[in-house]
Design a protein that fits this description.
Length: 439
């Protein structure tokens, strides 16, 4: 071929081939995490491919947690000094005892429930169902917060500010809960819960607006907004919202009409918030996958350039995505105030907003997957206390297990390598964010 042909310019009117989109490490990572199975596969195979890696990641997380328990157990080291066989036997006993206590603490003993039901004594029944219902109570804020992060992912946004939005939701819900007096419960309770959503939505709107209008990175903004929310909460609880008759930095107790109703007597804390969380998860799924607004949101999250060429308002979808994500996190704060604590206290959250990132990844940013992942985290949290009481193993081992699960979810290639799984064919991808260096 001659040099003239090689150097020839394209004819006028001819379209140049589109340049391949640049992918940085963050985008490649998220595409790997959220890559869905090919559409041409049978439904059962697509379902299996979707859940296989998360299930194996949970298994590997439990195995790694067991290894940590063995390494830190004095009785295991003492047994190994006797013989290798004795050490291995003691290691198995320690791990089995720990996880058995964790399971009993999360779900209770079936025998106790059968005896309680046979006796017909409400007090015994409540004691028997307490572990299971307490796991549901612990899972409820995880559902709200996990939906918040997953919703942001679907919009192409990293909502690292779910914890701060949760705090703002709690502040708004607590204020409406204790300051509005004389309202009937069917008005006061929904109003206070809605106030929590408004507070979280407001805190999500700010970084969303900054992202859409100025290009400011939502990760940096939401992290900074977290610290502002924490300090704002501390100031309010030592000043305007402090209960006058208390030396502790807590707000006044909310009115009884604002409380989320419970379904059993003491000591069971199970309340309406769990069913509200399930309803919200269904609504989020319906919005994302059954409405035009959800389609626009997901399109902007997947490819904002294509969305802009199609006539979609990228600016509006970014603002709307962060605002709704913040509202979901605010519901988590409102749930804790109205359903569990009945007031606002300093550092009332145990990191629900940060754990929600792991939950959204474990659930593959699917509302249904988020619910299942939240139940797992909730039961782990509720069972950890019993494990510590029965075995003396620190409650923090649950956080270690959760961290290992997140590692194996975030790096599915490791899980596939360990179990020698084939790399699935590349199918439809849901890109969570294009903002890690992308434009």
């Amino acid at each position: 071929m001659s040099d003239d042909k090689l150097n020839a310019k394209p004819e006028e009117g001819a379209q140049e081939a589109p340049k391949p989109e640049k992918k940085d490490a963050g985008k490649i990572f998220l595409e790997e995490v959220t890559a869905g199975p090919p559409k041409h596969l049978p439904r059962w195979r697509r379902t299996l491919q979707s859940i296989l890696v998360p299930i194996l990641a949970i298994f590997l997380g439990m195995v790694c947690g067991g290894i940590i328990i063995i390494i830190t157990s004095e009785s295991v080291w003492a047994a190994f000094q006797v013989s290798i066989g004795a050490g291995l036997k003691e290691a198995w006993n320690v791990v089995a005892t720990a996880y058995s206590a964790l399971f009993v603490g999360a779900f209770g003993r079936p025998g106790d429930l059968i005896k309680a039901l046979a006796s017909g004594d409400p007090k015994l029944i409540n004691l028997a169902i307490y572990p299971f219902t307490d796991g549901l109570v612990a899972a409820t804020p995880y559902i709200f917060a996990g939906l918040s992060v997953a919703f942001g992912f679907r919009a192409g946004l990293f909502n690292i500010g779910a914890e701060g939005q949760l705090f703002l939701g709690a502040i708004f819900a607590a204020f409406v809960g204790y300051s509005f007096k004389g309202l009937p419960w069917f008005i006061h309770m929904p109003l206070a819960f809605l106030a929590g959503a408004v507070g979280g939505g407001l805190w999500g709107f700010i970084p969303g607006w900054l992202k859409a209008k100025t290009g400011a990175h939502e990760v940096i903004n939401t992290i900074m907004m977290n610290y502002i929310a924490f300090r704002l909460s501390d100031w309010l609880l030592t000043g305007p919202m402090k209960r006058p008759d208390s030396f502790n930095p807590v707000s006044p107790t909310i009115q009884p009409g604002a409380e989320l109703p419970t379904f059993f007597g003491a000591p069971v804390r199970f309340h309406l918030g769990f069913f509200i969380a399930l309803l919200v998860a269904w609504l989020v799924s319906w919005y994302l996958f059954k409405t035009r607004w959800g389609f626009d949101l997901r399109t902007v999250g997947t490819n904002p350039r294509a969305a802009r060429y199609a006539g979609m308002s990228v600016t509006m979808q970014i603002i709307l995505g962060m605002t709704l994500a913040g509202a979901l996190a605010g519901m988590a704060g409102g749930n804790e105030v109205l359903g569990v604590n009945h007031n606002l206290a300093m550092a009332f959250s145990s990191g629900y907003g940060f754990d929600a990132i792991a939950i959204a990844l474990l659930g593959n940013s699917s509302p249904f997957g988020v619910v299942l992942a939240s139940l797992l985290f909730g039961f782990l949290r509720s069972g950890a206390t019993n494990m510590m009481l029965k075995t003396g193993i620190p409650i923090d081992i649950v956080s270690v297990v959760q961290a290992f699960i997140l590692v194996f979810i975030a790096a599915p290639a490791i899980t596939r390598t360990i179990f020698r799984l084939k790399q699935p064919a590349k199918g439809e991808e849901v890109v969570l964010s294009t903002s890690w260096g992308g434009k």
